[in-house]
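[job 0412] stage=complex_fold ligand=L-homoserine status=START
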Amino acid sequence: MVKVAIMGYGTVGSGVYEIIKENSFEKEALNPIGVKYILDIRDFPDHPEKELFTKDFDDILGDDEVYCVVEAMGGLHPAYEFTKSLLEKGKNVVTSNKELVATYGPELLAIAKEKNVNYLFEASVGGGIPIIKPMCSSLMSNKIEKIIGILNGTTNFILTEMITKNKDFDDALADAQQKGYAERNPAADVEGHDACRKLAILSSLAWGNYVDYKDIVTEGITEITLDDVKYAEKFGYVIKLIGYAEKKDKVFARVSPMLVSKSYPLSGVDDVFNAIVVKGNYLGTSMFYGRGAGKFPTASAIVADVIESVRHLNANKAYLEWKPSEEGYMLDIADSVSSYFVRCDAKKEQIEELFGKVSFADGIKDGELAFITPKMTEGEFTQKIGDLAKSFIRVLEA
Ligand code: HSE
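[job 0412] stage=complex_fold status=DONE, emitting structure tokens
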């Protein structure tokens, strides 16, 4: 039997335990898998296997029988220090911790490679949706051109409530909190930070060099109003929080609300669901859809990575690798191209003088102009619009 340890017995960690308890995956992993330790600072006196619990990380680190460790603690510290020590000790580590992967991925992957073990993190993006392995392994024959994703379930739920139930942002957020989707402090979700880290991981894997999440321009959904939703509807769009990345000469990545055409498949991805569109040069576009969070969806991706590491006993899986970032690797947002939905108090003639013929929407707010510009670089747009815009939202090109 191959022994596994689980660090963190919260929602995800307990899901991993329950899945492995139910099935040792002997056929799939070519060896039965069993849990030897569970690390948690809390006590679980009523747990049926309470003897598995420890509060001492060294029990896991020092036990040569432990082949693979699931890090389900979340946060950067001590998850980083524990993961690094485990990899250096020659143990495989599997995680759903997007913050840790997006921050320390290059270093941890390099240690894993040097030690001929695996650092696997399928669950860190899209929860239970298979995306990392398909993108890095099944699509190896393609050059990835674009990644467009709804990468955060909480914000997608909030926007869906605004679009379909006419709730304003605060009411929709309160609903998300009441349902347990949004944290009491919802900043990581609603400000786009969670989606940003997921996009950083996908971009790093797709194009080989580390994309630092700090280099991704990130805007959340806190400024989106019901009027924006209504204007979008008039133009034939819905508003979604989109993680967008592409590679031409340089890599460009941005997280922001976008107008998504109702004819584009991502427009129908609602509630807490996530979806990621990947465009390959031979495949064209392909969409991966499913549950991006939650106990068993996330645990299912983690256990699949555990099985993967056991199936390839004592071998590093080469498909997960990224080099350090390079100077000039990322495109400046001013050079990115989009069209823009704008709300302003200007006169139609003034707008047409700046942007040529555009289509206007009216009837939502008296005295206000709303229009969509032609495609242009963001630098050109900001220079043209000056301080005329009350707000703008980028439009996703389908
Ligand atoms: N808070 C995240 C979400 C959980 O809403 O998608 C998964 O990362």
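The pocket of L-homoserine is lined by residues 127, 152-154, 189, 194, 292-293 (CB under 6 Å).
[job 0412] exit 0
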